[in-house]
Write a structure and sequence with these properties.
The chain has 187 residues and is α+β, with helices and mostly antiparallel strands. The chain has a single domain, classed as Gcn5-related N-acetyltransferase (GNAT) (Aminopeptidase, 3-Layer(aba) Sandwich). Strands 6-7-5-4-3-2-1-8 form an eight-stranded mixed β-sheet. The protein is globular, with a radius of gyration of 17 Å.
């Protein structure tokens, strides 16, 4: 009986909570963006593109400008991921390497898709690059399909961007975050 109580407490303690970004999340989101940049993008960039990124105000400018549109995932009070979408387009989905394969990205995407459905969006769009095979597999597993390929002009590193789309179906009458994540609004 006690083992069941302990495992239930542990499962509850590790629940993914998705909520709107707050200014207090700035440093945690910056650390997540730095982590995913270092593990995903940095090894692929040309030296010139890497230097241009280091000379830019990114990711600080992105967080400053778009932070209020972010949603973050928390586990036990720690920010462990973020998603940013606008209208039908997912601009960003980031989970640090140490937190991957725990259902966080899946919960964030379900939350974003449900938000789009609630807004009457019927088709979601997002992009990734051809070198990022992990994200390609992830999006395909979520039901996205490739809709186009074109040069990635942002990084000037010879990348090819893949556009993915997903039919979200009819708008939902009652939005929810996902079956595996809960939401709460800040007090």
């Amino acid at each position: 009986m006690q083992d069941t109580a302990n495992s239930t407490a542990s499962a509850t303690a590790n629940a993914i909570v998705i909520r709107p970004w707050q200014l207090a999340d700035f440093d945690a989101v910056k650390a997540i963006l730095d982590d995913t940049f270092a593990s995903t993008w940095q090894p692929q960039l040309t030296p010139e593109a890497l230097q241009a990124y280091r000379d830019s105000a990114e990711p600080l400018g992105y967080i400053d400008q778009m932070g209020p549109a972010f949603f973050v995932a928390e586990i036990d009070g720690d920010v462990v991921g973020m998603v940013h979408w606008e209208d039908d387009f997912v601009h960003a989905l980031h989970v640090p390497a140490a937190q991957q394969r725990k259902g966080i990205a899946r919960a964030l995407m379900a939350f974003a898709e449900n938000g789009m459905r609630a807004a009457g969006i019927e088709v979601a769009r997002l992009e990734t690059d051809t070198f990022n095979e992990g994200s390609q597999g992830f999006y395909l597993a979520l039901g996205y399909r490739e809709a186009g390929r074109y040069p990635d002009l942002e990084w000037h590193s010879g990348f090819t961007t893949i556009l993915y789309v997903k039919d979200l179906g009819a708008p939902s009458s009652s939005p929810s975050a996902s079956n595996s994540a809960s939401t709460r609004t800040p007090a």
